[in-house]
Design goal:
- It is built from 5 helices and 4 strands, in the order H-E-E-E-H-E-H-H-H.
- The chain is of the alpha+beta class.
- The chain has one domain.
- The protein is globular, with a radius of gyration of 16 Å.
- Residues about 25-30 have low confidence and may be disordered.
- This is DUF4357 domain-containing protein.
- It comes from Sporolactobacillus kofuensis.
- Pfam families: DUF4357 (PF14267).
C-alpha cells in the first residue's frame, strides 16, 4: 500500500497536482525566520509563510472577528465560505493550514479588510515580506 501511495504522489506531482502533500512542511518549525506574522487590533493574530503555490496561513492563526465595510464583496464571500466549511471555526481560528494564491489574499482574509500582503506580513525582525523579497533578489 505504501508503494502505491508513493507512486500516486509521484505521478500527480509530475502532472502538476499537489495532492497528498501537506500545505506546510512542519519539520523545520524551529526555523521561525521563514514565517511571517500579522497582529492587529481587530483580533487578527496569524502566522504564515510563502509557499510554491502562494502564501500559506498556519493552523491556529486567529482572524479578525469582523470585516470592514470597504472589504470587497468577493473577499467577504471567500471569508464566509471558509467559516461555513469549517476552515475557520467559531472562535475565528484556522482549523487547518490554508494556502491562498497570494500574500494579499491571505492578509485580507486574516485582517477582514483590503490589505497589501507584501507589507502586511512581517517577520520576527519587523521586516515586511516586500523588503525581504527585495533583499533576496
Amino acid at each position: 500500500m505504501e508503494e502505491f501511495i508513493e507512486n500516486a504522489k509521484s505521478l500527480m506531482s509530475v502532472l502538476g497536482h499537489k495532492v497528498l502533500e501537506p500545505a506546510i512542511i512542519h519539520h523545520n518549525i524551529q526555523e521561525k525566520n521563514d514565517y511571517y506574522y500579522i497582529d492587529t487590533a481587530h483580533g487578527a493574530d496569524a502566522t504564515g509563510k510563502p509557499v510554491v503555490d502562494g502564501f500559506a496561513v498556519t493552523k491556529g492563526s486567529a482572524v479578525a472577528t469582523y470585516v470592514t465595510n470597504s472589504m470587497p464583496v468577493s473577499l467577504k464571500k471567500l471569508r464566509q465560505n471558509l467559516i461555513s466549511e469549517g476552515s475557520i471555526d467559531d472562535n475565528y481560528t484556522f482549523t487547518e493550514d490554508r494556502i491562498f494564491s497570494s500574500p494579499s489574499l491571505a492578509a485580507a482574509v486574516v485582517t477582514g479588510s483590503s490589505a497589501n500582503g507584501r507589507t502586511a506580513w512581517k517577520n520576527q525582525e519587523g521586516q515586511t515580506l516586500k523588503s525581504v523579497e527585495t533583499v533576496n533578489q
